[in-house]
Amino acid sequence: MRSTAITSAIAAMVLIFAGVIYFTGPEKFTFYVGDITPVVLSLLAAIAWSILAAKTPKTFNVDKKARMCIAGFLWLNFLGETSWVIYELFLNEANPLGSVADIFWHASYIFLIIGLILFIKTVFVPRKILVWFNVVFISLALTYLVNALVFTKFNSSSLIQTLYVVWDLIALGLVLIVLVPLVLSYNQFTRSWIIFLAGILGIVIFDMIFAGLTALGTYATGNYVDLIYFTAYTLLGFAANEKYRLIK
Amino acid sequence: MITVKVVKSEKVASAFADSVKKFSKLPGVCLLLTKPYSAVKEALKKKGVNAEKIFFVDAIAESEENNVVHVQPGNLTALSITINQTLQSLPPGKKFFIIDALSALTVQNSVQAVQKFSLFLLERLRKWDAETVIIVAKESADAALLAILKQGADKTEEK
After folding, report:
1. What residues of A are in contact with residue B79 (Cβ under 8 Å)?
2. Domain B2-158, what fold?
3. Exposed site from A28, B7, B55, B149, fewest CB < 10 Å?
4. Residues of A in contact with B70 (CB under 8 A)
5. Contact predicate A61/B89, CB 8 Å
6. What is the pLDDT of residue A178?
7. Could you tell me if A88 lies within 8 Å of chain B, comparing CB atoms?
């Protein structure tokens, strides 16, 4: 059995377990599951992408570098999730915004965006569409940033949340450039891309909802929205397995 | 090595079959833009080539065969990903890639888009170290597209 198939199977079981607990378990238990699950899922996805990057033939060096970047993105996410758990479970600090975890998560976005750009280099995208998407999503990101800086009361916590949305908008633009044409032409070779891009899309959507909920002060670990996040990590692990299956 | 074969329309099929036969001992991928796999399979059988050992990206029709994947020829993004992934799925080492026939892409895409796609593909195929044959029908090929292909190739054969 492929090593990435094992990590995918474990991730699927962890996701199902978390889903069951979220819908049926007691609140305290949901809190623990909500903290631990992303640590496990990000670790499994990071391992799967590291294996995939290592096994990618050298002749496909841009793919290899892109996969290494996604592995880097996931390892930094794992460190971010682990830091978050340490704050919440061991230091009893609920929603530790502006902590070390955010340093890892922000750093992870640099890897994600470089990885997505490298992936797009391996794909033919008509230049007009590329320019159009970049202009729209980078403009949206900058507008959001300027609006937040000028019109809202600012502190370090809100700045950190604002930057997440800026990263997310840039990542969203890069994902949609490739995802839209692929959904229209599905086959077994485009499947791994669709799963991967859906995973990134899940993280981006979660981050945006998370930013909104924390701004309203209504987010706490154990919120149903966490399930989007868990599913996103699981999909990223599945995507690595799907790509690795093709190489094998 | 990238070879461009410019042939008369009626000789596209035989040029394709000859090219596949030449590389049939290597693992490889064929991109079908003018005839579906079902027709190509029979033609290759007559040449003594087992088509089931080759991977086909069929832009004409869907197929139930395991070694065939269908991509719409108008979706160049999906086509580029499928080519990349199919070549990655082959065993490491020498491999081949044959296109029958690139000029047919201009039916569903603008000539400029196919020109850019050809440049993209030439650059990628060189990096992927695939023995490549691009067959072009003389009558239907746009002059600028043909010029790009000839400039990007290592060898041009005109028949």
Report:
1. 124, 185
2. Rossmann fold (3.40.50)
3. A28
4. 187
5. no
6. 84
7. no
